Amino acid sequence: MGMIAVSVAFLSVALAHAHTPWVVPRGGSTEYSAKLEQVKATVLEKAASSIDGLKRAILDESSVVDDFGSKADSICIQALEDFATSAPQDDGSSSQEVYDKKLEELEASLDAPLQVLYLRQLTLLRQEALERYRSASKTSEMSEHAAIMTAERQFAQQAEASTREGSTWDFSAERSYLVSVMNNIAESSKASQSNQLEWSQKHQTAMQVLQQQQQMIQQLQMQLYGQTSPWNVGLAYRIPDTNFNLQGSYQQGRANVQLSCVPDDYAPMLGPNGFTQGVGPGNLGLSLNLSI
Question: Which Pfam families does the record match to this protein (predicted)?
Answer without folding.
Answer: Sey1_3HB
